[in-house]
């Protein structure tokens, strides 16, 4: 397994990441299937059709339901959801942030209540690695604390120090698990996560410390959680130079098409976000001319596809008027069409990005793309 840097255009990287489940062309957008499915009635066959390279599932949610032991007994996540390409599982660390009212953080790990049935769950670095090993994902994320972006130094520094100690424990545990006879994916890869809120010097020092640990990849976490876009871009610019260029860099939970374009220019390889599926389920669709709300009355008699030049399953056959009718009638098919379109839009944009970097015209591509997004119908 390795990361090959094919070329750079400024700081933008075009790479190939070889994994046990295939080669990932980067930059890449990972399609988010929280509970081993993309919300909106999208199957893994659909993911193949719309050009998905990597599916992302949620460690915490699959631990709660159906249970990672169940998934292991059924042959692991790839077999369970019938997907033979790479899968990344997050660590459960974000739930430490999002379930703030239900948890207690200690050095050993985090105790919190299940959002499903209220039962008490303990998760630390070892437990997170064990769950992800049971799921047998391609890439496992280290267990961390995603601290509030605006927390002050007195909170952030101890949190980051603990995240570093947790990463060391994750690495040891993954090495142990990958050596066990009954482990499904004995080549499971580990990405560490950079934290530090919006405090540059803490971020940089943490990046240096985790870069020395020689992991398979590195993520920038704890962004898009309350800070401004300008602050997010500043932190990316501060951190990237201190992460290994010969390893993939993953900006977690980001974002809008504009966010992705800006982050690619700063050297990010991997992205994920729920926006395309979540917005699609509410009738909001992305186009090269801005985002459309198909619930708007002006689309009632609109016979055009969502986007004229789009090759997604919805745009190849169906009109805005028909999809709007489905949404208004609360037919799931309307939601499905919108989610498929949005994921195709993101996946196709990443393909365009890769081509632009290869041809050393990324700045011009980005400029044209951002200008197009301003031309709302």
From TrEMBL:
<dbReference type="GO" id="GO:0046872">
    <property type="term" value="F:metal ion binding"/>
</dbReference>
<feature type="binding site">
    <location>
        <position position="222"/>
    </location>
    <ligand>
        <name>substrate</name>
    </ligand>
</feature>
<feature type="binding site">
    <location>
        <position position="315"/>
    </location>
    <ligand>
        <name>Zn(2+)</name>
    </ligand>
</feature>
<feature type="binding site">
    <location>
        <position position="341"/>
    </location>
    <ligand>
        <name>Zn(2+)</name>
    </ligand>
</feature>
<dbReference type="GO" id="GO:0008616">
    <property type="term" value="P:tRNA queuosine(34) biosynthetic process"/>
</dbReference>
<dbReference type="Pfam" id="PF01702">
    <property type="entry name" value="TGT"/>
</dbReference>
<dbReference type="InterPro" id="IPR050076">
    <property type="entry name" value="ArchSynthase1/Queuine_TRR"/>
</dbReference>
<comment type="function">
    <text>Catalyzes the base-exchange of a guanine (G) residue with the queuine precursor 7-aminomethyl-7-deazaguanine (PreQ1) at position 34 (anticodon wobble position) in tRNAs with GU(N) anticodons (tRNA-Asp, -Asn, -His and -Tyr). Catalysis occurs through a double-displacement mechanism. The nucleophile active site attacks the C1' of nucleotide 34 to detach the guanine base from the RNA, forming a covalent enzyme-RNA intermediate. The proton acceptor active site deprotonates the incoming PreQ1, allowing a nucleophilic attack on the C1' of the ribose to form the product.</text>
</comment>
<protein>
    <recommendedName>
        <fullName>Queuine tRNA-ribosyltransferase</fullName>
        <ecNumber>2.4.2.29</ecNumber>
    </recommendedName>
</protein>
<comment type="pathway">
    <text>tRNA modification; tRNA-queuosine biosynthesis.</text>
</comment>
<keyword id="KW-0328">Glycosyltransferase</keyword>
<feature type="binding site">
    <location>
        <begin position="90"/>
        <end position="94"/>
    </location>
    <ligand>
        <name>substrate</name>
    </ligand>
</feature>
<comment type="subunit">
    <text>Homodimer. Within each dimer, one monomer is responsible for RNA recognition and catalysis, while the other monomer binds to the replacement base PreQ1.</text>
</comment>
<dbReference type="InterPro" id="IPR036511">
    <property type="entry name" value="TGT-like_sf"/>
</dbReference>
<keyword id="KW-0808">Transferase</keyword>
<keyword id="KW-0862">Zinc</keyword>
<feature type="domain" description="tRNA-guanine(15) transglycosylase-like">
    <location>
        <begin position="11"/>
        <end position="372"/>
    </location>
</feature>
<feature type="binding site">
    <location>
        <position position="310"/>
    </location>
    <ligand>
        <name>Zn(2+)</name>
    </ligand>
</feature>
<keyword id="KW-0819">tRNA processing</keyword>
<dbReference type="GO" id="GO:0005829">
    <property type="term" value="C:cytosol"/>
</dbReference>
<dbReference type="InterPro" id="IPR004803">
    <property type="entry name" value="TGT"/>
</dbReference>
<dbReference type="GO" id="GO:0008479">
    <property type="term" value="F:tRNA-guanosine(34) queuine transglycosylase activity"/>
</dbReference>
<keyword id="KW-0671">Queuosine biosynthesis</keyword>
<feature type="binding site">
    <location>
        <position position="312"/>
    </location>
    <ligand>
        <name>Zn(2+)</name>
    </ligand>
</feature>
<feature type="binding site">
    <location>
        <position position="195"/>
    </location>
    <ligand>
        <name>substrate</name>
    </ligand>
</feature>
<feature type="active site" description="Proton acceptor">
    <location>
        <position position="90"/>
    </location>
</feature>
<feature type="binding site">
    <location>
        <position position="144"/>
    </location>
    <ligand>
        <name>substrate</name>
    </ligand>
</feature>
<keyword id="KW-0479">Metal-binding</keyword>
<feature type="active site" description="Nucleophile">
    <location>
        <position position="272"/>
    </location>
</feature>
<feature type="region of interest" description="RNA binding">
    <location>
        <begin position="253"/>
        <end position="259"/>
    </location>
</feature>
<comment type="similarity">
    <text>Belongs to the queuine tRNA-ribosyltransferase family.</text>
</comment>
<dbReference type="InterPro" id="IPR002616">
    <property type="entry name" value="tRNA_ribo_trans-like"/>
</dbReference>
């Amino acid at each position: 397994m390795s990361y090959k840097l094919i070329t750079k255009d400024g700081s933008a990287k075009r790479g190939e990441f070889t994994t046990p489940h295939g080669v990932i062309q980067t930059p890449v957008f990972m399609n988010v299937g929280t509970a081993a499915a993309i919300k909106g009635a999208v199957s893994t066959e659909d993911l193949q059709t719309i050009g998905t390279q990597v599916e992302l599932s949620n460690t915490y949610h699959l631990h709660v339901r159906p249970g990672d032991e169940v998934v292991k007994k059924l042959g692991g996540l790839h077999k369970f959801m019938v997907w033979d390409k790479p899968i990344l599982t997050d660590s459960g660390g974000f739930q430490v942030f999002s379930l703030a009212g239900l948890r207690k953080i200690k050095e050993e790990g985090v105790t919190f209540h299940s959002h499903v049935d209220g039962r008490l769950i303990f998760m630390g670095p070892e437990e997170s690695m064990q769950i992800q090993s049971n799921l047998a994902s391609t890439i496992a994320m280290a267990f961390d604390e995603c601290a509030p972006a605006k927390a002050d130094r007195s909170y952030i520094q101890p949190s980051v120090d603990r995240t570093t100690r947790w990463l060391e424990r994750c690495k040891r545990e993954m090495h142990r698990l990958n050596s066990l006879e009954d482990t499904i994916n004995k080549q499971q890869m580990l990405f560490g996560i950079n934290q530090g809120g919006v405090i540059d010097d803490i971020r940089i020092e943490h990046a240096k410390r985790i870069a020395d640990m020689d992991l398979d990849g590195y993520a920038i976490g704890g962004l898009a959680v309350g800070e401004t876009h300008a602050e997010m871009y500043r932190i990316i610019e501060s951190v990237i130079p201190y992460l290994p260029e010969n390893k993939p860099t993953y900006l977690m939970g980001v974002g809008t098409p504009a966010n992705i374009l800006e982050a690619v220019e700063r050297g990010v390889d991997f992205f994920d976000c729920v926006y395309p599926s979540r917005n699609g389920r509410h009738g909001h669709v992305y186009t090269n001319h801005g985002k459309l709300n198909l619930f708007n009355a002006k689309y009632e008699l609109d016979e055009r596809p969502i986007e004229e030049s789009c090759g997604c399953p919805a745009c190849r056959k169906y009109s805005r008027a028909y999809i709007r009718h489905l949404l208004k009638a609360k037919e799931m098919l309307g939601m499905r069409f919108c989610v498929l379109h949005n994921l195709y839009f993101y996946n196709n944009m990443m393909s365009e990005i890769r081509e632009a970097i290869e041809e050393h015209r990324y700045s011009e591509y980005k400029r044209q793309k951002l200008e197009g997004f301003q031309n709302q119908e």
